[in-house]
Design goal:
Number of domains: 1
Helix content: under 10%
CATH superfamily: Immunoglobulins
Structural class: mainly beta
């Protein structure tokens, strides 16, 4: 009797990165379909004005909340893995992220991580966010911080034809 051939997937391996980006807001409707609002790679803000810190006090790190989205599909992968997102600042300082355990169940299912994260804004330029799975680099997400010029205080309006006192 001939051996029955096992079905092979057209694609083997995994897990697969299906998306990694920043946005203003992430929604999930009752049908579990996500919606991402205002996907961004540039963050324009007013330059933070920080008070001088007393000697010996830690530096205040200004930050803005943005929504981070990372989506992975299992593929052949099953079991627990460790995800971490490290940040490299424009001045090339590296900040190690927190390890997070995620689980894969194989197939087309996967893991969708999304939520607000404080993004540092203490210097202008491109911040690179390295998405790592078990220490291996999957991708880098850029987010450029740009300082907008501060707006001057509005000047009082004068009425045409009004006479100045003097």
């Amino acid at each position: 009797m001939p051996k029955k051939k096992s079905k092979k997937s057209a694609v083997s391996g995994g897990p697969y990165l299906t998306g990694a980006f920043f946005c203003e807001k992430a929604l999930e409707e009752t049908d579990r379909v996500p919606t991402f609002i205002r996907v961004m790679d540039i963050l324009t803000i007013e330059e933070p004005k920080l008070p001088a810190q007393p000697l010996g006090q830690p530096e205040i790190m200004p930050a803005v909340l943005v929504t981070l989205v990372v989506m992975l599909k299992s593929g052949d992968e099953k079991g627990k893995r460790t995800l971490r997102i490290d940040t490299v600042t424009p001045s090339l300082k590296r900040r190690k992220g927190t390890d997070q355990t995620i689980s894969f169940s194989g197939g087309e299912g996967g893991v969708h991580l999304r939520g607000p994260v404080p993004h540092p804004v203490n210097e202008e330029g491109v911040y690179w966010h390295e998405v790592r799975l078990d220490g291996k680099l999957l991708t880098r997400i850029p987010l450029r911080v740009v300082y907008s010029p501060t707006k001057p205080d509005p000047q009082p309006l004068s009425t045409p034809g009004a006479k100045e006192k003097g």
